[in-house]
Amino acid sequence: MDAVLWQGRRPVVRKCGIVLVLLIIIFMKGGGNFLDRSRTEEGGKVPTIAEVSKNPYIYRYNHELCKEKGLTESTDHLSGRYLYMQAVYRANLDAYLLKTLDIGELDEELGNGGLGLVSLGPEEQNLYERESTMELRHICLRNNLYIEYLRKDQLCLLEDQLSKGKLVVTDEIQDMVKETYREVIRVRNPGNWEDDESFLYAEAQGLKPKIPNSALVLEISGEVEYDASGNLLSDGQIKEKYEYLDRIKEEKEKEYSGLLGTKVYILLE
């Protein structure tokens, strides 16, 4: 049945092939720097191959599947083309989450409410914060996005946007993202790609939380121990902030899980 569906989309496949040829020409003429632009029109940053390679969880990508689907030429590392298509997917998932959840209002509350959480500077941001297209000061999506698990026609939809050279957010792509993000965010074990156990996330607040592989993970970040002027807060004020964040985490994890129909975890950075 999949083969028939794919056969019925042959015009789209041909279009993707043309887009890919054009992209190769652009890469060659531009010295391979097409993906090194710092920001896109939607505010997100497409990471370089070097940046992603520093991610300690890079091995979780299925490089063999990437190569099989033509997303990379090597089974050792991701390609610039993969990262740009991934960024298109992220921009549309960010837009879907902003539309579905009240994270915009929550971000405003964290920064301008009684908590007065101070946002991190660019030099202090991690890869996920820099990649985000949400344009929020404190909240971003923390999941890696494994687009190699998309069908070929879905990948083609992302690739169409590459010809435009920007992270286009469209209703069509958001509909596809809504249908597929649970598979795309799922962390897999390279020793057993069907393994469905929990995943040990990077350290957050001195802890390494163990989170289900299929969970959607959001991050809240900010300076807890200092005010906007860089002054160290009292122990009582710091304790108050941590208690507030813990309460928000518990409330919003439950609320967001219900709205999305999938488990949501919030990391406090």
Description of the molecule:
This protein is mainly α. The protein contains ten helices and five strands; from the N terminus they run H-H-H-H-H-H-H-E-H-H-E-E-E-H-E. The chain has helices at residues 2-7, 10-29, 49-53, 63-68, 80-100, 103-112, 127-131, 152-162, 171-185, 235-260; strands at residues 139-141, 198-200, 210-212, 216-220, 264-268. It has a three-stranded mixed sheet with strand order 1-4-5. Helix 10 links the parallel strand 4 and strand 5 (264-268). Helix 5 (80-100) crosses helix 8. The radius of gyration is 20 Å and the shape is globular. The N and C termini lie far apart (45 Å). The model is unreliable at 1-15 and 18-41 (pLDDT under 50).
Measured between the Cα atoms of the first and last residue, the distance is 45 Å
Q: What's the mean pLDDT score?
A: 80
Number of strands: 5
Strand order of the biggest β-sheet: 1-4-5
Structural class: mainly alpha
- Please report which band the strand proportion falls in: under 5%, 5-15%, 15-25%, 25-35%, 35-45% or over 45%: 5-15%
SSE order, one letter for each helix or strand: HHHHHHHEHHEEEHE
As a percent range, the share of helical residues equals: 40-55%
Largest sheet, in brief, is: 3 strands, mixed
Any low-confidence stretches, pLDDT <50, length ≥5? 1-15, 18-41
Query: What is the radius of gyration computed over CA atoms, rounded to a whole number of angstroms?
Result: 20 Å
If helices are DSSP runs of H or I spanning 4 or more residues, what is the number of helices?
10
Shape: globular
